[in-house]
Design goal:
Structural class: mainly alpha
CATH superfamily of the largest domain: Tetracycline Repressor, domain 2
Shape: elongated
Largest sheet: none
Order of helices and strands: HHHHHHHHH
Strand content: under 5%
Radius of gyration: 19 Å
Number of domains: 2
CATH architecture of the largest domain: Orthogonal Bundle
Helix content: over 70%
CATH topology of the largest domain: Tetracycline Repressor, domain 2
Distance between the termini: 63 Å
Number of helices: 9
């Protein structure tokens, strides 16, 4: 039986789960989705592959749990950014800047990995829900700006940012790309309301 290194079994499992998620993220960033397997994650923390299956049912489940772990961090950053803005334009710019900064963060490896793995429908449904959590702060700003269809406008704004992220990830110059994207985003979201 494995040695328990925490005050309770639940604490031990939580610590072990966190270590496995951290190892999975390290593998994903270093090797890409092809290197991410339950066996590789277990080996990274010194746990047998069969024991890893107590925490993850598959590689897709590892990815889904990594996203589940990352989304609240990014949602908090986006909410904080929009809350701090003194006016609507500043809030939209702040949301855009945080969204674009995602490309330079190790968590961006998750997005690339998700496009290369077929997820079970339940995982995809949960990811869709989490995606809506990320868009929520922009939707609130757009509603505050007086748009009749804040959900549609926020999703269109997200699409603008998504294109900029793709270009940045492909090596586009961050300065001009960021400036142009934020200008287009503000113009698109603040006119026609």
């Amino acid at each position: 039986m494995p040695r328990i290194t925490a005050a309770t079994v639940a604490d031990h499992r939580a610590t072990q789960h966190a270590a496995l998620l951290s190892a999975a993220m390290e593998i994903l960033v270093a090797e890409g989705p092809a290197g991410l397997t339950p066996a590789a994650v277990g080996a990274r923390v010194g746990l047998a592959r069969s024991s890893v299956y107590r925490y993850f049912s598959s590689t897709a489940d590892i990815l889904a749990q990594l996203v589940e772990d990352a989304i609240p961090r990014w949602a908090d950053r986006l909410s904080s950014a929009t809350a701090a803005g003194p006016d609507l334009e500043a809030k939209i710019r702040a949301f855009g800047e945080v969204t674009l900064s995602f490309v330079t963060h190790p968590d961006y490896a998750l997005l690339r990995a998700l496009t290369s793995v077929e997820l079970p429908q339940e995982c995809q449904d949960r990811l869709d829900q989490l995606h809506e959590v990320l868009i929520a702060p922009l939707r609130e700003v757009v509603a505050e700006a007086g748009h009749e269809q804040p959900d549609l406008v926020a999703h269109l704004g997200w699409a603008i940012l998504g294109e900029a992220q793709r270009r940045l990830a492909a090596g586009a110059d961050p300065g001009p790309t960021g400036r142009t994207t934020l200008a287009v985003l503000c113009h698109a979201l603040l006119t026609g309301r």
